[in-house]
Amino acid sequence: MDKIVLCIKWGTFYGPEYVNRLYAMTARNITPPFQFVCLTDDRTRLNKNIQCFDLPELGCEHPVGVPGKWSKVALWNKDLFGLTGTALFVDLDTVIVDNIDELFQYKDSNDVVLARNWLKPAYRLGQTTLFRFPIGKHSYLLEEFRRDPQGIAEKFRFEQHYVTQGIRGGVQFWPTRWVKHYRHHCLGRNYLNRYLKPARLPRGARIIAFPGFPNPDDAVQGSWAGRPGADSAWKHFLNGFTDKRLTNSILGHMKSYHLPCPWVQEHWAE
Q: What's the predicted TM-score (pTM) here?
């Protein structure tokens, strides 16, 4: 059975190059055969080897006034465009740095496997940045959500919390070394180090996730939220006290400095 790698592109925040790069990274780091599927509202300029479908219907009103990407709950539909088997969902702002075959072999094929929340490791919370699931096997998640979308969203706040706590029989988590958070694990919490050397690639990592900022393009350029970094660390420091500040706070501005990352540039390519 083919391995299915699945992503979603909606809106214009991420261009087609994000999908194409994710496809290219997958192809370089997986043993064929595999299917690469993109659910999207715009197929323009996507690689011809990518299998495209329209965005799945949520089938109810979208919750309002709450955080979280609740449209992703539609992935739990009993029929997902006729796809069958096990799918690995990957967010577009993800860099694949090593072979991902084991992500399809880990635990039982009927298990739902997620990345553990990196910032709250003591809690049993999952991240749907990268998760594997048997297509159509947990359709009750969508059915229950459709009955009370606003109530469920207000209770769980984030779609990934709903998935983590709603899967009957519980979820599994990837080994911590496989999936890393770029800002937390690669740049590190000691932001002064960012002025001296580029982000490190943690040993044993397969996937690097980029929640929030910087995103992979920023990592390649040494920019923040698409805004170019200063020519030097000293100039960046001085900019923190002017209208050239990259974030709302001076401390946040200091933390936004980082050098271009060679290994992201190597992997984040078509």
A: 0.94
